[in-house]
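User: Let's play a game. I give you a shape written as tokens, and you guess the letters that built it. Ready? Here's round one.
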């Protein structure tokens, strides 16, 4: 296999954050020696999450075995996932904002037609449903655990307890028509054919769309991590990957 120098389009703050956490983790485990230092293990993990390269390519670039690369990445991802904010913590942060934005996104996975629970009729592809909360500027605040792509957005929001948590915190939430019937503090556009809505309802819907559109920034932020654009691992690992990405994003944006 040919090996060449490459780069990761991220700030060094994420590398320093993960390196420090891995160093602390190794001290707690009493680890004496490993093939990669905490800094190199952190860089390996960032390259995997950001660029989505296969383990074999990463292993060749870092001079380690494929199994070792998998083990190092899995360890770092699990560590990051435990550091990601919970929904309760996100709701407390949201309570300091004027309002929050809620939307669902589909993370594509490599599944066949027989895997119906993962097939999204809306997107016409297999994937995992992830709910996203963003602040009024479109910055990512929280991302939910992943559910099969066939799950509807409003059902996913209820299962995760998002609607109840925002209502308890008294936070106004703007969402699209996919959350119709959510109640609580969730605001959705008027429902019906455009030609049958009144002029006032149309104006409200236009204003609502302009505000809600900012949540696409948070979704784009999540999918800027190329691994999440086409997930080829077990669906059981998707939640950990999303939480790891969320943790790194928040750590580097502080």
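Assistant: Ready! My guess for every position:
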């Amino acid at each position: 296999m040919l090996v060449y120098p490459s780069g990761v389009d991220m700030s060094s703050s994420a590398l320093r954050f993960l390196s420090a956490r891995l160093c602390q983790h190794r001290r707690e485990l009493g680890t004496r020696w490993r093939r990669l230092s905490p800094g190199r293990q952190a860089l390996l993990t960032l390259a995997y999450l950001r660029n989505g390269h296969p383990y074999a390519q990463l292993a060749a670039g870092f001079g380690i075995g494929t199994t070792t690369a998998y083990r190092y990445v899995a360890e770092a991802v699990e560590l990051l996932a435990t550091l990601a904010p919970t929904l309760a913590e996100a709701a407390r942060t949201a309570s300091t904002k004027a309002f929050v934005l809620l939307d669902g996104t589909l993370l594509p996975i490599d599944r066949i037609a027989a895997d119906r629970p993962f097939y999204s009729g809306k997107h016409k592809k297999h994937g995992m449903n992830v709910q996203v909360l963003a602040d009024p500027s479109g910055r990512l605040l929280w991302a939910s655990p992943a559910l099969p792509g066939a799950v509807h957005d409003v059902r996913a929001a209820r299962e995760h307890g998002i609607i109840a948590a925002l209502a308890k915190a008294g936070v106004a939430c703007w969402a699209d028509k996919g959350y119709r019937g959510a109640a609580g503090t969730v605001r959705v556009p008027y429902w019906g054919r455009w030609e049958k809505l009144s002029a006032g309802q149309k104006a409200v819907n236009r204003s609502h769309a302009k505000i809600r559109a900012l949540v696409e920034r948070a979704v784009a932020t999540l999918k800027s991590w190329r691994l999440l654009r086409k997930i080829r691992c077990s669906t059981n690992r998707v939640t950990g990957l999303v939480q790891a990405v969320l943790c790194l994003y928040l750590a580097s944006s502080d």
